Amino acid sequence: IGLLKAEKQPSSGHRQYNDQDVLTLQKIVSFKFLGYSLEQIGKMMKESSFNSNLNDTLQKQKKAFEQKKEQIETTLNAINRTIELIAGEGEVDSPVLMSLINSMQIEKDQRLCVEQHISKDVADQLFNKPKEELVALDKEFIQLSKEVKRLMGKSVHDPEVQELVDKHMKATFEFVGEEAIYAMQDLEDLEKEKLENMFSSPYTKEEEEWLNQAMEYYMIQNGMYTPKVD
Question: At residue 166, does pLDDT exceed 90?
Fold first, then answer.
């Protein structure tokens, strides 16, 4: 867009740069380094000095780069967790892996949702986990999904089904904590639905219904839940 214009040497036709051209090039490179577009640089090149207006645009640039940095860190964390999962498991079903990656991608939104509908303390308890715990939970989730698909169709009263639910519930209580579990149970139906929609599921509708029935039966049998009677 003509930010740097050099004169041609008459005898050779080569471009010839003077000290002012070098200074102009330095300005272009500096502004480009700070993340400005060529169009923005073109306007700024006309300024002989800079005041608070430049500071305002730098603040905007800073905010934009901080957002990019956060996005890059989120992506790198997701990549590292996925690498570790596949290395440990050898093979992971596509719906399960996509569900996990999606959950990692929108973790910030999930956290805000938990803060709004439950509490910040519960959100901290859920999301301020060390990497090792998160990977362990991912592996637990993968194993659960495998067993759900294997046992799907069996009676929810079946001992093997209830053993699976028992193992899963204990792992959930250990990771999530009783406070968060009971806080979620006390939510209004609309709030609960909004929160549940924030967490991607790898299951089909039929598998979801079957698993919910199995978990409900488990909770009734263990005095954790009493069905409402109309």
Answer: yes
Please state the rounded mean pLDDT for residues 39-66.
Answer: 83
Residues 103, 192 within the same domain: yes
Q: How far apart are CA 34 and CA 25, in angstroms?
A: 14
The C-alpha R_g of the chain, in whole angstroms, comes to 28
Secondary-structure breakdown of the chain: helix, strand, coil percentages, each rounded to the nearest 5 = 70, 0, 25
Assigned token pair, 35 = 């993340």
For residue 145, what are the domain limits?
A: 68-113+120-221
What is the H or E stretch that residue 201 is in?
A: none
Pair 196, 94: CB distance under 8 Å: no
Does residue 11 have a pLDDT over 60? no
Q: How far is CA 179 from CA 63, 141, 193, in A?
A: 36, 21, 19
Eight-state DSSP code of residue 228: -
Mean pLDDT computed over 189-216: 81
Question: What is the predicted pLDDT for the residue at 164?
Answer: 93
User: Is the same domain home to 171 and 78?
Assistant: yes
Q: How many domains does the chain have?
A: 2
User: 12 in the Ramachandran plot: left (φ > 0), alpha (ψ -120 to 50) or beta?
Assistant: alpha
Residue 25: predicted pLDDT? 83
Are 25 and 75 found together in one domain?
no
Q: How many CB atoms lie within 10 A of CB 168?
A: 20
Are 89 and 29 within one domain?
no
In a domain, 174, yes or no: yes
Question: Does residue 213 contact residue 116 with C-beta atoms inside 8 Å?
Answer: no
Backbone φ/ψ region at 13: left (φ over 0), alpha (ψ -120 to 50), beta: left
- Whether residue 130 is contained in a domain is answered as yes
